[in-house]
Queue: 2 jobs
Job 1
Amino acid sequence: DAGVIQSPRHEVTEMGQEVTLRCKPISGHNSLFWYRQTMMRGLELLIYFNNNVPIDDSGMPEDRFSAKMPNASFSTLKIQPSEPRDSAVYFCASTTGLLGTQYFGPGTRLTVT
Amino acid sequence: GIQVEQSPPDLILQEGANSTLRCNFSDSVNNLQWFHQNPWGQLINLFYIPSGTKQNGRLSATTVATERYSLLYISSSQTTDSGVYFCAAATGNQFYFGTGTSLTVIP
């Protein structure tokens, strides 16, 4: 298995632009998590899905952030409009069930100038 | 939410030494995991251990849920063990990460 796949690996954009991050979970996993990591705030859980349904999005910082999981093999995290404070590494992780071992993708490093 | 505290924040070891990392959490949890983030940023799950003890090679972990702490043991440390070790605890639907222990193993 290729593991969790994230794209792009790096993204540089200007403030105000829309950013879309993509994640392909491990085949057979039915839960998917989006995390953000910054020096100031550490690792934060943004949202997670179970069987393609959002279970908890209380970690999403504000309405500029949205996430979708249209099918079991694909999820997106969108930021519109982006701001410099959104600069971070965004990780996607998948697992079976909600409480199982989580497997992380390599992350997307986002820089908003 | 749950407060997750890790100690020590930083640790420097000579190769071959043993170490114990601690994770305290402020409330009952239904999920406790340990992760290693290597110097290249990759996050790897080490243990899913809401209670009891597990071992995987030179690493082992123990969670005493009634006393709200978990320990990660690293024996015979190697330079490849360097990185940041995070614990994450969950209750209900939300996960909370500690701030990590940064480990440097010197050859």
Job 2
Amino acid sequence: DGGITQSPKYLFRKEGQNVTLSCEQNLNHDAMYWYRQDPGQGLRLIYYSQIVNDFQKGDIAEGYSVSREKKESFPLTVTSAQKNPTAFYLCASSIGLARETQYFGPGTRLLVL
Amino acid sequence: QKEVEQNSGPLSVPEGAIASLNCTYSDRGSQSFFWYRQYSGKSPELIMFIYSNGDKEDGRFTAQLNKASQYVSLLIRDSQPSDSATYLCAVTSGTYKYIFGTGTRLKVLA
């Protein structure tokens, strides 16, 4: 059953702590994306990756880091430098070029303790 | 900054009516256009995509694209209470990026 999985569903972060959000896809897609969604707002691009071992900053990359060591996996780390991390984080993938449809994972909701 | 504009709503329509959702975009180079539905607390799911000027129909949904006016719309016929959700418009920008609007909240009244 092909799709995108994200874990955990909910994540709690303490002050000064780095946390990592997981994203895995078995769709054989080359491109993967991380978005942040705040209440009443659209999706804002954090990072994207076109191929393995390559990734690009999006519009709001400060305080976040990613890696793309495998085609299937694109984890996002929210660092302590991100001062307002509370949001709904969405991972997406597409075949490659932006003409194609993006498919989304179920999301991770990050809350600050 | 490339932008996608949507009326935030809520757009309220009675059950069985046609819901019309609109979106304008600023990047004349955009080539692909998508409508996603997002229920509260859930991730977006694709409703339709459209690449060429004109209409594209899929069941109760029709997407309309006018590149000259930089305008894309979604019509939902025979609206059902289960269609109540936020509808996100997305357009491509450049080779790998997608720009999303803030969404229109649709309420279908039973």
